[in-house]
Amino acid sequence: MRNTGLFPKLAMQSIRSNRKFYLPYILALLGDVAAMYIMRALVNDPGVKNITPGRPSGYMYVEIFMQIGMVIALLFSAIFIFYINGFLMKQRKKELGLYNILGMGKRHIAGVLVIETLYIGLAGIGGGIAVGLLLHKLVSLFLHQMLGMPVPFGFYISWSGMVQTAILFAGLLGVTLLLNLNKVRVSKPIELLRSGNVGEREPRTRWLMTALGVITLGAGYYIAVKTQNGVEAIMMYFVAVGLVIIGTYCLFTAVSIFILKALRKNKNFYYKTSHFIGISGMLYRMKQNAVGLANICILCTMVMVMLSGTLSLYMGTAEMVNEQFPGDVNIDVTYYPQPPAGEEADWNPFDDEAMLAVQTRFIADQGFHITGQRTCVDFGFGAGLLPDGSYTTDRFAGTVGAVVTTVTCMTEADYTAVTGKTLDLGPGEIAAYGVKGDELVIHWVVPDDGREVDTSTLPIVQKLASNPDFNPEITQVVTIIVADDAAINDLWAKQAAAYGPENYSQMHWKAYLDVDATEAELEELQSRYQDAIEDSGFYEGTGSWLTSRWNLRSEGEAEAYGLAGGFLFLGMFLGFIFILATVLIIYYKQISEGYEDKERFEIMQKVGLSRAEVKRSIHSQILMVFFLPIVVASIHIVFDFNMVEELLTMFYIHNTALTALCTLGTVLVFFVAYGVVYLLTARTYYKIVERS
Fold first, then answer.
1. Which of 92, 514, 530, 532 could disulfide-pair with 372, CB 3.0 to 4.6 Å?
2. Which residues are within 8 A (CB) of 220 and not within 5 positions of it... i.e. 6 or more apart?
3. For 470-489, b where at least 16 C-beta lie within 10 A, e where not — what string?
4. What is the CA radius of gyration of the chain?
5. What residues have CB less than 8 Å from 510, skipping those under 6 apart?
6. What is the mean pLDDT of the chain?
């Protein structure tokens, strides 16, 4: 066969005749390439790098999120391309076998496959880069709007991004081509022709895998439910995810077979036309179906977790900002209530009233009016939770759990100033957040020594539903509200005695000032403040203290929306890719099963099965298989909710109702989209198996 011009014709004819298989593949490849180019272009765009001087971290957010997105998208694209390629080669075994029978050698078939891959690469990679060029500016506009940053002007083309993207995906297609050529090399023509007639044996009930699935899934759920803080969530999240993924595969591979066999034993259920056909068909192909169903379930879970989590973060950003920055100007001064060792001669008690006067006088001297002010004092220390529910300052003792508890103390007057609520605490009484039981017991033990210097037993007269301390809950958190300054000074003295002069805690004086000024005026005010404090006499009369910081709410808000907007954008961007992959996997799965079932349904209609009965049995089978993954994914979401909520506390998000609403909304929208896909695939499946 010397006519090499035949190969391109055969390759093009093959793609055309199998367009229902190849067109979704090319479109998926096109979408992945476009997404990769857009992310690379956003990182390289000089307009993004030079984004306004007031937002020096703006480019950092874009770069970090896009780098993360590119890694995830590339890994996922590789898995997805290999999956679809395997499906396509399975469908074409008869065609390739026929080529061989009709006289084409394996090297000729290899030539056809090489040209097909080139056509697919040109259409998918070239088209993807073209789409990426067209959509880059629109995506850039959307991203910068979410991050609260100005959109850079001009149209940018990333030549390096085009080259890198083309090389990456050409490499992936090259690997699939090598796999396909190896399959052709080792296969025999007669095996290729008979591949569609090779059936699956009835799978045996694998008790070991069933037990493994139950154990790993239960362990993953247990970790997710029992996680108590952000640190635990970070440390254990991927452990829980790994266990749930293993459990999901075992669930669909082994547990599903057990359930199908149990349904088959139920004669009242099994011996109905639709149930008989559906269950018998699924049972004999369950080994093949299980992996596809597990993949769909995991993808659905990933999409819903990403979208609900990032949406909760973005929707809760206003709450995050309000907690972190209660005032337009937020001042934090650290000090010791007693002189450090060796500094007694030069030490003067910190005067919070004088510090407040200095700060407010400076703002007034700059021509601005303070419309509101609040102050509070607190301090915190680390402790370990003992098995009996009490706490010890020897937080790394052998009897203490692995997680350190952060204990924060403040007076009722300061609590009222911050929250506007009163508690009416008596001497020795406390209100507490994060404590179980009716009293708080603290053993003031010298760390690494074991010597107990004192013990405090504090009756809890009121449990607080929310934490009044504006800090992310990255550890287990306890907040104590005491009656007065004498009580808080007593606690500070006891922790100082336990920790010693080198490790005892600092006190924090905080002032939250509302100023009648625009964002630009506040930034100018802060700049003037930085210049003013260069004068050594600026803080005269305020006593001895360690550090003083100014934080503007406007800056914190910009940072918060930049972070939350970046997460949401990445979640939506990757979510779209995952949804596309889920739809295509379902599409290919239904087409594959449709062709496998076609002959069986034709025989059943010939022996008297009506079209209506065929249609009912088809819908019964598709419904049972199709909706199982999303039902299991929804169960995963329910158990994952607590862990996601704990992760959000690290971003100052403590609104359970908001997180639950975002999660529920995401699941409902996904169910609707999933239902639309069901209607489309059911119609395609029915057209294939229905007798004309």
1. 514
2. 240, 241, 242, 243, 244, 247, 639
3. bbbbbbbbbbbbbbeeebbb
4. 33
5. 330, 331, 332, 333, 375, 376, 377, 378
6. 80
Q: Looking at residue 341, what is its pLDDT?
A: 74
The secondary structure of 222-281 as a DSSP string is: HHHHH--SHHHHHHHHHHHHHHHHHHHHHIIIIIHHHHHHHHHH-HHHHSSHHHHHHHHH
Lowest mean pLDDT among 344-348, 350-354, 421-425, 491-495: 344-348
Task: Give the separation between CA 93 and CA 368, rounded to whole angstroms.
Answer: 79
Of 247, 239, 309, 248, nearest to 575 by C-alpha is 309
How many residues are given for the chain?
692
Asked whether residue 354 carries a pLDDT value surpassing 90, the answer given is yes
The winner for highest mean pLDDT among 196-200, 423-427, 662-666, 687-691 is 662-666
**Spatial distance between the Cα atoms of 671 and 627, rounded to a whole number of angstroms:** 9
* Torsion angle of the four alpha carbons 269, 271, 274, 279, in this order, in degrees rounded to the nearest 10: 70
Q: What is the pLDDT of residue 1?
A: 45
Alpha helices in 441-542 (DSSP H): 485-499, 519-532
491-523 pLDDT, tens digit each = 999 998 898 877 888 899 999 999 999 888 998
- Classify 179 as helix, strand or coil: helix
404 class by beta-carbon count within 10 Å (0-12 exposed, 13-18 middle, 19+ buried):
middle
Give the containing element (helix H, strand E) for 478: strand 476-482
User: Using an 8 Å Cβ cutoff, are 367 and 439 in contact?
Assistant: no
Please give the Cα distance from 535 to 524 (Å, whole number): 18
Q: What is the pLDDT of residue 611?
A: 66
Q: Which of 319, 323, 308 is nearest to 568 (CA)?
A: 308
**Predicted confidence band at 692 (pLDDT cuts at 50, 70, 90)?**
very low
Q: Got the DSSP string for 87-149?
A: HHHHHTHHHHHHHHHTT--HHHHHHHHHHHHHHHHIIIIIHHHHHHHHHHHHHHHHHHHHHT-
User: Sign of the C-alpha dihedral, residues 132, 134, 140, 142?
Assistant: negative
Q: Can you give the pTM of this predicted structure? A: 0.73
What DSSP state is assigned to residue 157? Answer: -
Give per-residue pLDDT as tens, 267-289. Answer: 777 766 666 766 776 666 665 66
* Tokens (6 digits) for 488: 């808080």
Could you give the C-alpha distances from 111 to 77, 102, 103, 107, 184, in angstroms and in order?
Answer: 25, 16, 14, 6, 11
- Residue 273 pLDDT: 61
- Phi first, then psi, for residue 429 (nearest 5°) are -90, 155
Closest CA to 349 of 548, 549, 541: 541
Task: Count CB-CB contacts under 10 A for residue 13.
Answer: 11
d(CA 660, CA 638): 10
Alpha-carbon distance 560 to 652, whole Å? 10
Residue 46's CB: how many other CB atoms inside 10 A? 11
Mean pLDDT calculated for residue range 589-614: 69
